[in-house]
Structure formats: structure tokens, C-alpha cells
Design brief:
12 helices; Enolase-like, domain 1; single chain; 2 domains; binds magnesium ion; 3-stranded antiparallel β-sheet; TIM Barrel; alpha/beta; about 15% strand
Length: about 375
């Protein structure tokens, strides 16, 4: 089998879909997107296209090695997101060629269903109580929200009080058995994080996500001395080498590879195995579209130290397009009592509605990132 064509689609709200055609009529889909850099993501894939045309799509590791190592410069969000989407599409083709879901090729299922969570509140964590009720009605048993708004390097204690009151209110509504993930989003600096992790702890959050920016991983051990709540991070780390220090230095409890940024399904599986050897769990990051989620679900099915899956159903960014809008078998993302079913179709397990994708591409995407400022006009982490 040979790769014959790559086609890229811009799809609302903020996704890029890649279709890879082959000379045997099988097609594979992937999601090579770095949020807020859609055109850069497209250009990165286009630059890899001449190398891919004519290649045997079953040689996934060899193609990965060439894309990663073959151009001297390597890693980083742009190149790894492009590689990720291509890699996902290659697995989709491989699974379809063999008539198997990808997880059946990667060791088989190690669980019967996949625990998942959805977002409550937005970039600014408002309406969290109402959203939490809605998520329970939809069938979720775990949720996540931003812990804070923009946070001063050393702010006043009202920022701490707001975060604590918000979590307390959600805990009151959902009861003691619902998991509440708290995303610090890299907004909080070390000096405030130490107080926050302690004061939020009585409300038993499921984990603290990105309690510090990825630039400050070396401070995580100090932070973990202030709390017993699991610390999570990893959405802004790329490839097994990007994760090496985090894992081998034992800096975290839960890694969060994003399957559209880390290098794809097989790369994430390798990172997960590294983490397993250091007693860390895996909670794939996925605020993205259906192909990123479908890829994540393949990993979740076959990874022993998997903990919980993020999904973007009706999340704050999904304006103009939602998770199942471009998927024919929409039931694949149905939530039952907190769980997704294991996908059963060959490949990634979803059937893309290409007509809907082509229609969406005519409009393109306009999503743009946040650009936050502190009260004094200086740049804030968003
Ligand atoms: Mg996050």
C-alpha cells in the first residue's frame, strides 16, 4: 500500500482535520492542530507531504523516526502537533487494513470502559455550579474547572478566597463522590501556588493540573511538600524526551499527554509506559476534536496506568462546532454513568462525515487565543 494524497480541512471551532488517501482506497484521518496556530500547523504538515507521498503507511515507527529525526531540528509544539495528526491517520489506515481497532494492535484492551470528564465554567471560572448540575444530568461523574482567573505573581488573598469559595460551592452541589479536577492552567506562580494547594485541599479535588508552568517543573517537588492532592501536568510537553525529566525525576503523580501534540498514539503509549515504571497515572489531555479524542480512547483502552480521559463535549471553546458534529457514529462519544464505551470499529473507531467537513472548511476557523493583562497592564498567563 502507498500513500497517495494528503488533504487538510479547517473545521470550526478550532480544529484541523487531515485525510490521508492510499492507492488501495483506504483512508485515514488525524487531527494535526496546535490551538491558535492553525495555519502554522497546516504549513508544517504540507512541508512533510513530499516525503510521505509514495510511502508504505504501515511503517508507522519508521515514518515517525524520519519525520522526527530526519530534518535535524526536532520536537516542540508545531512539529510534534503536525507529526501527531499524521501518525493518528497512519494508525487509522493500519487498523482499517487489519480490520481491528488500534488498541487491539497495541496489546489489546486492559479495561471494559473508559472513565471521562468534561469541563464546567469557562476560561474565567463562572457558572460552575450550574454547569456542574448540567454535567451530572448528561451522565458525567467527574468534572474539571479552572481554579482561578488570571493570578498576580503575589496577589491579595481575595484571589485565594475566590478559588476556595468556588470549589466549596461545586463540592456542595455534586456531593463527595464526584471527582473535581482543578486546572491551574499555568496561571499561578510558585509563591501563590503554595498557599492555594493547601487551602483548596479540604474540598478534596481529584488533581491539580499545571500547578506551575512547564518552564518550572523543577519546583514541583517543593510544591508537592505543601499538599497531598495529586499533581498533574504534561499538555505542553512533547515526545518521550520532553517527558524524560518529569518522569525519571518523579516530579508528578499524573501525566497528561495530548495525543495531538505529544507525537501521536504510539508516542503517547511509550510515554505512558515510562510513567508506569515510576508509578504515575495517565490522564490524556483533550480539549480538541473528534479525531484527537478517538485517538486518546485507543490509548486509554490498552494502557494499564490510564486514569481518566478529558473530552471537549460542549466545552467553552466549542462554538460553531461540537465534538460529534462531523462524526457519523455519534454514539461512540456517549457517556454512561461517567464512562465512554470502548470503540469497536477498525482504526480510530470513528466514521468522519466528509461532506460535513468539506462544508465546514468553506467557512474556515476564526478562533483566537486569549490575551490577558493584569490590573497594571502587564501580561498575565491565560
Ligand atoms: Mg490544562
Amino acid at each position: 500500500m502507498k500513500i497517495t494524497a494528503l488533504t487538510l480541512y479547517r473545521v470550526k471551532p478550532r480544529w484541523i482535520f487531515l485525510k490521508i488517501d492510499t492507492d488501495e482506497g483506504l483512508v485515514g484521518w488525524g487531527e494535526p492542530i496546535l490551538e491558535s496556530r492553525p495555519e502554522t500547523s497546516v504549513a508544517a504538515v504540507k512541508e512533510m507531504e513530499p516525503f510521505l507521498i509514495g510511502k508504505d503507511p504501515s511503517r508507522i515507527e519508521h515514518i515517525f523516526q524520519t519525520m522526527y529525526r530526519g530534518t535535524f531540528y526536532r520536537g516542540g509544539p508545531i512539529l510534534m502537533s503536525a507529526i501527531s495528526g499524521i501518525e493518528q491517520a497512519l494508525w487509522d489506515i493500519r487498523g482499517k487494513a487489519l480490520g481491528l481497532p488500534v488498541y487491539e494492535i497495541l496489546g489489546g484492551a486492559v479495561r471494559d470502559k473508559i472513565k471521562a470528564y468534561a469541563w464546567i465554567g469557562g476560561d474565567h471560572p463562572t457558572n460552575v455550579e450550574e454547569d456542574a448540575k448540567g454535567r451530572l444530568e448528561q451522565g458525567f461523574r467527574n468534572v474539571k474547572m479552572n481554579a482561578t482567573n488570571a493570578c498576580e505573581r503575589i496577589g491579595d488573598y481575595s484571589e485565594i478566597d475566590d478559588a476556595v469559595e468556588r470549589l466549596a460551592a461545586v463540592r456542595e452541589i455534586v456531593g463527595k463522590d464526584v471527582g473535581i479536577g482543578l486546572d491551574f492552567h499555568g496561571r499561578v506562580h510558585k509563591s501563590m501556588a503554595k498557599t492555594l494547594v493547601k487551602e483548596l485541599e479540604p474540598y478534596r479535588p481529584m488533581f491539580y493540573e499545571e500547578p506551575l508552568l512547564p518552564e518550572h517543573l523543577d519546583f514541583l517537588p517543593e510544591l508537592s511538600r505543601h499538599t497531598s492532592i495529586p499533581l498533574a501536568t504534561g499538555e505542553r510537553l512533547y515526545g518521550r524526551w520532553g517527558y524524560k525529566e518529569l518522569i525519571t525525576q518523579g516530579l508528578i503523580d499524573l501525566i497528561q499527554p495530548d495525543l495531538s501534540h505529544v507525537g501521536g498514539i504510539w508516542e503517547a503509549r511509550k510515554v505512558a509506559a515510562m510513567a508506569e515504571a515510576y508509578d504515575m497515572g495517565v490522564a490524556p489531555h483533550c480539549p480538541l476534536g473528534p479525531l484527537a479524542l478517538a485517538s486518546s480512547m485507543q490509548l486509554d483502552a490498552c494502557t494499564p496506568n490510564f486514569v481518566i480521559q478529558e473530552m471537549s463535549l460542549k466545552m467553552q471553546y466549542n462554538i460553531g462546532g461540537d465534538l460529534a458534529d462531523y462524526v457519523k457514529n455519534k454514539d461512540v462519544f456517549a457517556i454512561n454513568d461517567g464512562y465512554l464505551n470502548l470503540p469497536t470499529l477498525p482504526g480510530l473507531g470513528i466514521e468522519i462525515d466528509e461532506d460535513a467537513v468539506i462544508e465546514a472548511d468553506k467557512e474556515g476557523i476564526t478562533w483566537s487565543p486569549r490575551n490577558w493583562r493584569h490590573a497594571d497592564g502587564s501580561v498575565a498567563e491565560a
